[in-house]
């Protein structure tokens, strides 16, 4: 559903995924959300980025994973803002 063409459905699906993430599924769901961040519409990236960062902050199982995930998100945000990062 998060891949739906309808913006309102995507937003509700993101809220649902956000509520469903817990300690046992944080890694696969975060990976899926970050993968989708790469291909999502520009107008959806802000909300998606905010939710991903919140999930990482709240449910990170360890510091290394936290840093890895944040770097992936920051890398995508950099591309989104300036077009490319070097």
Describe the structure.
This protein has 86 residues and is mostly helical. The protein contains four helices and no strands. Helix 1 runs parallel beside helix 3, helix 2 (26-39) runs antiparallel to helix 3 (42-59) and helix 3 (42-59) packs antiparallel against helix 4. The radius of gyration is 13 Å and the shape is flat. The termini are far apart. The model has no long low-confidence stretch (mean pLDDT 88). Keywords: Membrane, Protein transport, Transport.
Q: What is this entry, summarized?
A:
With 86 residues, the chain is mainly alpha-helical. 77% of the residues lie in helices and 0% in strands. The chain has one domain.
- Return the domain count: 1
Q: Which consecutive residue ranges, at least 5 long each, have pLDDT under 50?
A: none
Q: In angstroms, what separates the terminal alpha carbons?
A: 33 Å
Could you give a short account of the major beta sheet?
none
What is the beta-strand fraction? under 5%
Helix-strand makeup class: mainly alpha
Helix content: over 70%
Rough outline: flat
Helix count, DSSP H or I runs of 4 or more residues: 4
Mean pLDDT comes to: 88
Order of helices and strands: HHHH
How many strands? 0
Radius of gyration: 13 Å
GO cellular component, one term: membrane coat
Keywords: Membrane, Protein transport, Transport
Protein name: Clathrin/coatomer adaptor adaptin-like N-terminal domain-containing protein
Domain Clathrin/coatomer adaptor adaptin-like N-terminal: 3-75
